[in-house]
Amino acid sequence: MTEEKNNHNAVAFGRYLRSLRKRRGLSYEILAKRSGLAEDTIRGLERGDCKPDFATLRKLAGGLNMKMSALFTEFELGERERLRELTELLAGRSSRELQFAVKLLRFAFAELEAAREDDEDDEDDTTGS
């Protein structure tokens, strides 16, 4: 269970990192230059494949022009806000509506995962791997 939670946290942090990078209009290349990290490291972090150490997090925060405390606070609050929003959306729904919502979410997540895998395959094709 702990490994599963760690993987979930890595993926969630990766989504958050991608969102931060895009909101700031940064490409992988620009963030890599600003942070002193390799583009592949940033991609791995965004996919949730890498678990960053303290030095990596410090470089990442610097590249995003953020304090480390702000990086973590925004991540934690963002996760709670999304969970709260989902809870509010589901509150007071009938059992049938909840079952439909679960089916819909499972379908959507499967489609997103397939699209992500396609994107990764396309990246591998362009890099010659």
Distance between the termini: 33 Å
Tell me the series of helices and strands, N- to C-terminal. Answer: HHHHHH
Major sheet summary line = none
> What count of helical segments does DSSP give?
6
SSE topology:
Blueprint: H1 2-23, H2 28-35, H3 39-47, H4 54-63, H5 68-90, H6 95-127
Helix pairs in contact: 1-3, 2-4
Structure description:
This protein is mainly alpha-helical. The protein folds into 2 domains: about 1-90, lambda repressor-like DNA-binding domains (434 Repressor (Amino-terminal Domain), Orthogonal Bundle); about 95-129. It has helices at about 1-25, 30-35, 40-45, 55-65, 70-90, 95-125. Helix 1 (about 1-25) packs across helix 3 (about 40-45) and helix 2 crosses helix 4. The mean pLDDT is about 85.
Notable features of this structure?
129 residues, mainly alpha, 434 Repressor (Amino-terminal Domain), 2 domains, globular
In short:
Residues 17-71 form the HTH cro/C1-type domain. The protein is an all-alpha fold and 129 residues long.
